[in-house]
Design a protein that fits this description.
Oligomer: single chain
Shape: elongated
Number of helices: 10
Distance between the termini: 53 Å
Order of helices and strands: HHHHEHHEHEEEEEEEEEEHEEEEHH
Largest sheet: 4 strands, mixed
CATH superfamily of the domain at 261-332: Urease metallochaperone UreE, N-terminal domain
Length: 387
């Protein structure tokens, strides 16, 4: 998952910014990256949606408090809207009060979509969970239909009435400069809904929606990668009339492992061995995601040599083959020898022959050729020509 930028940085705000300053900063940034002003600009599209996400969090006192204390990780369970997969009109309808009357093109024509909004949240798993698959309980909050007024926004026993400003259309005609042209704008009386409430519901204050805490169990498939998401259909926010709900996207963060690094479906690790094990060979006990295993080190193994254990990596997400465990050998040279070890090592060194050590022989051959090329026939160094 790509690293998210700081929300205050996105809106160019100080962390002490007031609610009014946050609203003004978002309006300024949103208009700067507005799709009508940046047609076909993918970077502007990303920035526009990034600004909307920052505003949603910083304009909500509870989400802002959690973000200030714990950063992006503090928003787990708060289910921020999935802006990167959201249409422009969805964003405009969410923040109608920001764009209304601002000459924001399609924003003034936006109405709440039939389908409910998608949400996103985060869960954390281990590499062992990736290897086997797992289930995780996630808790989040979504805006759902108010149970008291059943989503109407009106006090029980009363009804909504047709907006007197727009006649129920949700839009009004606005004249341009000098009356020369007209444009359609969101009705300021009903904010595009086509109806108004005289006596608002006491529980949702006329919004028709209220926060609902949800706790569900999500199945995480084996082989999933860090940053990928599991989509849970129908767990997003409800659409018009409480139907056609959006989805919940549960993004996965994989914890760092003390031994392994992931490369596609392979697991990489370093295995330290002694000089004696490298020279004589050995079977070395190593950890895996499934318990302990044995790594065969052949006699004469060199530092940095890569050994492979098939089938002890991670499963492919789409099924099929399983990756390998790849071990890079590091040879540890003892920092301190006791007298017996030093004596034995000196005896061994006395028996070494240069022609037995292939790498050393190659090195000295190259060194000899190099020195010959840098000396005059009488043995004096050759002068270098720097011109």
């Amino acid at each position: 998952m790509a690293t998210k930028r700081d929300y205050y940085e996105i809106l160019d705000l100080q962390r002490t910014a007031s609610a009014d300053e946050i609203k003004k900063a978002y309006r300024k940034a949103a208009l700067k990256f507005h799709p009508d002003k940046n047609p076909g600009d993918k970077e502007a599209e990303i920035r526009f949606k990034e600004c909307a996400e920052a505003y949603e969090v910083l304009s909500d006192p509870e989400k802002r408090s959690r973000y200030d204390q714990h950063g992006h990780d503090g928003l787990r369970g708060s289910a921020v809207h999935d802006y990167q997969n959201m249409q422009y009109d969805d964003i405009f309808s969410m923040f109608n009060d920001i764009f209304s009357g601002a000459g924001a093109g399609r924003a003034s024509q936006a109405r709440r979509p039939n389908r409910g909004f998608d949400l996103e949240t985060l869960t954390e798993i281990t590499l062992q969970d990736v290897a086997r698959g797992c289930e995780r309980e996630v808790e989040f909050t979504r805006q759902d239909m108010c149970k008291t007024c059943e989503g109407t926004g009106a006090k029980p026993g009363t009804k909504r009435k047709i907006c007197s400003t727009c006649g129920g259309r949700g839009q009004v005609v606005q004249r341009g400069f000098g009356g020369m042209f007209q444009m359609v704008g969101t009705c300021p009386g009903c904010m595009g809904q086509g109806s108004t409430v005289d006596k608002p519901c006491p529980d949702c204050d006329g919004a028709g929606r209220s926060p609902l805490n949800r706790k569900i169990v999500v199945k995480i498939p084996a082989g999933i990668h860090d940053g990928q998401a599991v989509r849970v259909r129908g767990e997003g926010e409800p659409g018009e009339g409480g139907h056609n709900r959006g989805d919940l996207h549960v993004y996965v963060k994989v914890k760092q492992h003390p031994f392994f690094q992931r490369q596609d479906d392979h697991l990489l690790m370093e295995v330290p061995i002694s000089m004696a094990q490298a020279a004589l060979g050995a079977d070395v006990e190593i950890p895996t995601l499934f318990g302990k295993s044995s790594l065969h080190v052949a006699p004469g193994t060199q530092p940095g040599q890569v050994l492979k254990v098939k089938g002890l990596g991670l499963p492919d997400l789409r099924g099929g083959r399983t990756g390998d465990l790849i071990a890079a050998v590091t040879v540890e040279v003892p920092r301190k020898l006791n007298k017996k070890q030093e004596q034995l090592l000196r005896e061994f060194a006395a028996t070494e022959e240069r022609d037995v050590l292939a790498a050393q022989t190659s090195f000295f051959d190259k060194l000899k050729d190099y020195l010959v090329g840098t000396q005059e026939p009488d043995g004096t160094p050759t002068e270098k020509n720097n011109s």
